[in-house]
Amino acid sequence: MRKLITIGMNTIQGFASPAFNFLIVVFGIKTFGKTDWALLINVMIWVFLITFLLGWGNRDYLLRKYSQEPGQMYHAFFSNFLSRSLLLPLTLSLYLFFPTSIAFWAILLVILTFSYASLSTLVVYHQRFRAQLIAEITAFGIIFGSIFYVDFFVLDNFLKIYTIATLAKLIILSVQLNFWKEPFTAKISIQEFKSGLPFFILGLSGWLISKADIYVVDFYLEKAQLAEYQLLITSFLMLQALAAYITIPFTKHMYRVSPLVVQKIKYRLYVIAIPLTVLGAFFIWIMMEYFMQLGFSYIYYILGALIALPCYFYTLNIMELLKTHKEQAIIYISLFGFLVNISLILLVIKSHGILGVLGSVCISQWVVLIAYKWHWKCTQSLS
Fold first, then answer.
1. Contacts of 212 (CB under 8 A, 6+ apart)
2. What percent of the chain has pLDDT over 90?
3. Predicted confidence (pLDDT) at residue 9 exceeds the cutoff of 80
4. Using CA atoms, how far apart are residues 301 and 284, in angstroms rounded to an integer?
């Protein structure tokens, strides 16, 4: 029962963040219009990109390190955090793309998000999902409430609001974790980058296949279409991400349990995959067409559901490969999926717009699923 509560709390917490972001985008567009809100989306996608780069694969690297050397957990945490902080000057590149005021607040937002994201490994290891949920709810309340309080959309003001919200959740989670009370030992070392590099490349390959589409849409399509695509793809990525959130509580145990136990977990995930995806797609359709009135046909939502479904069938294959130190296989498969995805998008985006992008993402996701299952079958036949 306790394990089920932990899984449920992690799923709620993990789903809360993208759900909150989705609601903010929905009501932001509803209140201020697609074109104005797309200006904020344009800044935020670059904030998220730089934050991802600063992460340098720390999450998977540190979780493995904690599992192998639990007594050195806080030394590993502080050493990794301080070493990665050396990359913070990268944020200054935002001054090249945005006006001074916008760049300043974007940089501050990156620094706070970087610090908050760094705590995620401690949350997972200590199973403190409730504490993170409280932090996420607080940040959501600040941003969501501001949408109805502010009379006019001003990009600078909303970046300030996001900065305040991120600072609030950083403070709340830090207080809950009490990590500063632990003995402080740290070593700033280039070794942290060397050790984290395989995980960073791994994460980068995954990021390319899951996020590259939004940057292509930002470049090729109108701002209003960017907002529409952000709404649609975010909703289905939330549905896709449920697979990962359901399995996160097992992450630290995956390196210890037998293949038979992993197989049982796989079957349970497979059982819920289709009904969960169908139900989720139905609610997304209601939200997008009856509340946001996007005017998209059924094919958009069918493609969205088909984008979300494969992840439920290959998430645990990824964890198995991580367990056996076969990160290269994940990288090759992800890069192959990215090449398929980006090639198709560039071929159809001008002629078919958002529908063409969704179709390309859908095809690439099923290609990735087939690749993982083919690799798993080959591995089983050789063992």
1. 338, 341, 342, 345
2. 46
3. no
4. 8
